[in-house]
Every structure is written in C-alpha cells, then in structure tokens.
C-alpha cells in the first residue's frame, strides 16, 4: 500500500480536492478536509449507490469544523478502481485497508445505511482500530425489512424515471409537504459542487451492492454484544428503506448504544434533513470523554 501525502484540506466539502490512494494495486478516491493534527479522524461510510458527491455538504462541513473527516468511494464505486464486492464483510475489509493506508491507528466511523452495516462489521472485527461509531438510517444483520430494500429501491427508481424526479425524494424523505420541501433543499445542496464531480455508480456496482444488502438482511440476527465501543444511533421516524424499528433495536441491544430521538416527519435521510441538529449531537458524542 502506498500512503498518500499529507496536505492541507480546504474548509468546504464542495471545493475540496478529490485525491486517490493505492491499496494493494487498487486506487481508492477520497476527499479529506478539516484541521490536520493528532486528533482521531472520522471516516465516512456511505449508502447504496452513493459516491463522494452524495454526502450532504452541511453534514460534512459541520463535522469537519474541528476534526479531520475523510469520505471515500468503496472498491468499484464512483471513480475508485476494482470490482465492488457482493458482501458487507468484504466491503468492511476494504475499508480497513483504506484506513490503514493513511497509517491511522485509531478512527471514528460514521456509517449511513449500507455504510452502517459496514461500520458494525469493522467495529466488531477491529476493536483496537475503532474508537467511537455513529450509525444512521441503518440496522443489524437480519433486521426487519432489510431484505426488502432491493424491491423497494427498484420500485422507487422506476417511479423517479416516470415522474422525472430523483429517486432519493421518495427513498429518503417523507411524502408530506414538509418532506418534499426538505428533499428539494437536500438535492440543491448536492448540486453545490460544480467542478471535478465524481463518476456515477455503475450498474455492475449497483447490482453487487444490492446483493450484499440482501445477504445482510437474510443473515441470522446479529450478536451486537461484540460491539463494545460507544455508538450513537440516529434516524428519521418514518424510514421506508431500513425501517426505523431497526434504529430502536440497535440502541437497545448495543452494550454502549445511545439513541438520538427519532427525527419527526423524516425518513432515511433524517440526518440530512435535520443536519444542524445531527451535527451538533454527533460532534458532542465524538468529542466526549473518556475516549475508551
């Protein structure tokens, strides 16, 4: 693995340079921002079909105000090389290799949806590497409704095609006046970056991710007692993709789980809809003492 050079990061996610690091012969693209230093970096793990441009800049900029934040494309996703694995466990192993390419010995994780599945595996398998975890819009292996994500996603992609709307409007937000307004605002924020945008996810990668998620949903109920790190759990109260009962289950069964009250009139994209509130709560959690 070739470690990337350290360089100053810009203060805004919409402007920060996209870089790459070679991990066992595969180039992973990433964006890094926030103050450099000796603090614990925060690694962002994203959702189904997401590339670098799908992180809400308000969330990333807010989290990067006082710490290093690194977002990256998984293997085969966006501009990253290689082929996308079709299991969550393989994605987690890739993420660990990516993290170690920077020489980090301790990191925090923020996992959204599929990224939350990946974060759970990393936290359980690499307890010395992971200090704290934030899980959003996600659930444990075998959680109710997770095996239905494929059918739901394909239906709403078709609905988006027929209505000429972004499927995230249906998948991430509630079908209320307020939810529709928040969806439009979120999509506007995603368009703030105009230069050097990432590549869209390929159909091959999309299929592999769907297979991985389906397998995760069909697994026996997860043993969450293996995750000993402090974990903050957040979601909207009306998540259609990963039903919100999974969020409550995570908070109840994780040994050190902490629940953010479910965001009202919000769905899978609750942390984007309530970005100010989420950033405030997440920063307080990640900065809390003691670390261990």
Task: Identify the notable features of this structure and list them briefly.
single chain; 292 residues; alpha/beta; 8-stranded mixed sheet; 10 helices; 8 strands; 37% helix; globular; disordered N terminus
Spans of at least 5 consecutive residues whose pLDDT stays below 50 are 1-10
Which range does the strand content fall in?
5-15%
User: How many DSSP helices?
Assistant: 10
Q: Which structural class is indicated by helix and strand composition?
A: alpha/beta
Instruction: Evaluate the radius of gyration.
Output: 17 Å
- The spatial strand order of the largest sheet comes to 1-2-4-3-5-6-7-8
- Helical content class: 25-40%
Order of helices and strands: EEEHEHEHEHHHHEHEHH
Number of strands: 8
**Cα-to-Cα separation, first versus last residue:** 29 Å
Anisotropy-based shape: globular
Question: Major beta sheet, specifics?
Answer: 8 strands, mixed
**Mean pLDDT over the residues:** 93
Would you give an account of this structure?
With 292 residues, the chain is α/β, with parallel strands linked by helices. Helices cover 37% and strands 14% of the residues. It has 10 helices and 8 strands. It has an 8-stranded mixed β-sheet with strand order 1-2-4-3-5-6-7-8, with helices on both faces. Residues 1-10 have low confidence and may be disordered.
Summarize the structure.
With 292 residues, this protein is an alpha/beta fold. It is built from ten helices and eight strands.
């Amino acid at each position: 693995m070739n470690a990337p050079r350290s360089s100053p990061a810009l203060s805004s996610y919409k402007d920060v340079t996209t870089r790459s690091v070679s991990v066992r012969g595969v180039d992973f693209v990433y964006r890094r921002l926030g103050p450099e230093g000796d603090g614990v970096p925060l690694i962002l793990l994203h959702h189904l079909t997401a590339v670098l441009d799908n992180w809400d800049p308000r969330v990333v900029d807010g989290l990067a105000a006082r710490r290093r934040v690194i977002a990256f494309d998984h293997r085969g996703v966006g501009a990253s090389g290689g082929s996308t694995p079709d299991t969550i466990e393989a994605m987690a192993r890739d993420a660990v290799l990516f993290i170690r390419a920077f020489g980090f010995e301790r990191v925090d994780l923020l996992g959204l949806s599929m990224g939350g599945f990946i974060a759970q595996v990393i936290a359980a398998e690499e307890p010395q590497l992971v200090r704290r975890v934030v899980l959003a819009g996600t659930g444990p292996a075998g959680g109710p409704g997770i095996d239905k994500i494929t059918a739901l996603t394909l239906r709403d992609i078709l609905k988006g095609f027929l209505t000429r709307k972004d499927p995230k409007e249906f998948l991430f937000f509630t079908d209320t006046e307020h939810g529709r307004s928040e969806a439009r605002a979120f999509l506007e924020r995603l368009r703030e970056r105009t230069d050097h945008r990432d590549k869209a996810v390929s159909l091959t990668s999309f299929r592999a991710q769907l297979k991985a998620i389906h397998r995760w949903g069909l697994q026996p109920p997860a043993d969450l007692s293996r995750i000993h790190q402090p974990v903050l759990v957040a979601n909207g109260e009306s998540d259609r993709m990963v039903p919100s009962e999974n969020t409550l289950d995570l908070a109840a069964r994780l040994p050190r789980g902490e629940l953010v009250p479910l965001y009202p009139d919000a769905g899978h994209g609750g942390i984007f809809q309530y970005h100010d509130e989420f950033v405030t709560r997440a920063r307080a959690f990640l900065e809390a003492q003691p670390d261990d």
